[in-house]
Design goal:
By secondary structure, this protein is α+β, with helices and mostly antiparallel strands. The chain is 38% helix and 22% strand. It folds into 2 domains: 14-154, Rossmann fold, CATH 3.40.50; 181-247, 2-Layer Sandwich (Alpha-Beta Plaits), CATH 3.30.70. The protein has 10 helices and 11 strands.
């Protein structure tokens, strides 16, 4: 709907002060849309593919070569300029689609599952590219189910379940509103069951999970001083190897907010 491809049943939306219903052509000029599944054309080279879309955006022919060279360099595809599109790997095609999305220098990028189907290296490279685009001043809206990929570079999120927006805003603000419990991870040399029982005697501790010699200890978010954990274990004769706090992430937020009903 934000890409003006579908009409909403109700409500309205604006991008760069343009209404997606009544000013669709203006919206298309300021957005770059990268779908989850995108078409490529047989017997077309990388530069020809980009030239085709540049022409579709009515960019003058005299400017196209410079623009194509710029987006190829930005997406690290300069060396693939003369290659045929259908011969590219999935990761390279993903970069090419992003390059196509950038040819008209949009202010806002709408990316649908940009890391879908990519191997670990390609995902890391794509993430770094998105960070570079953010530094260039682009506003990037990403739809994704890969929460671990988003947490590294997103500053605001929206969580939708069964068509309803369950939460939105700055990640840190949402964490504070949810009052997520802090999780302290402790590794002991031996007798994890003994450590488990000792910790559950403390009123600050809400839950303890044991995984081998490692214990995950949940405490209330407002509990600032966690030194009691180490002191408790030592007083019970437990030998502590390490104590560290596990930061709550987007997966924790998602599980806290959503109901888990079948979509």
């Amino acid at each position: 709907m934000l890409a003006t491809l579908l009409r909403p049943t109700a409500g309205s939306a604006e991008i760069c002060n343009y209404n997606v219903l009544t000013q669709a052509n203006d919206v298309k000029r300021v957005i770059g849309y990268m779908p989850d599944f995108f078409g490529v054309y047989d017997d077309m080279k990388v530069w020809e593919y980009l030239d085709f879309f540049a022409a579709a955006y009515k960019i003058e022919k005299a400017r196209r070569e410079t623009i194509i060279n710029d987006v190829l360099e930005l997406t690290d595809l300069t060396g693939k300029r003369e290659d045929y599109v259908e011969a590219l790997s999935r990761g390279m095609k993903q970069r090419l689609c992003l390059a196509k999305t950038l040819v008209h220098d949009p202010q806002v990028l709408l990316l649908d599952e940009p890391a879908s189907g990519l191997d670990p290296r390609a995902r890391i490279e794509l993430r770094e590219l998105l960070k570079e685009l953010r530094r260039m001043g682009k506003t990037i809206l990403i739809s994704s189910h890969i929460l671990t990929e988003l947490s590294d570079f997103c500053n605001s999120i929206g969580i939708i379940e069964r068509g309803r927006l369950r939460a939105s805003g700055q990640i840190e603000d949402i964490k504070a509103q949810l009052a997520l419990r802090r999780v302290i991870v402790v590794e002991v040399r031996a007798e994890p069951e003994k450590a488990h029982d000792a910790l559950l005697e403390r009123p600050e501790v809400k839950q303890v999970e044991v995984d081998g010699n490692r214990l995950s200890i949940e405490i209330d978010a407002e509990t600032e001083d966690t030194s009691f954990i180490f002191e408790t274990l030592v007083s019970k004769g437990c030998k502590v190897i390490s104590v560290k706090e596990r930061e709550s992430n987007l997966e924790d937020i998602f599980m806290k907010i959503t109901d888990g009903a079948v979509q």
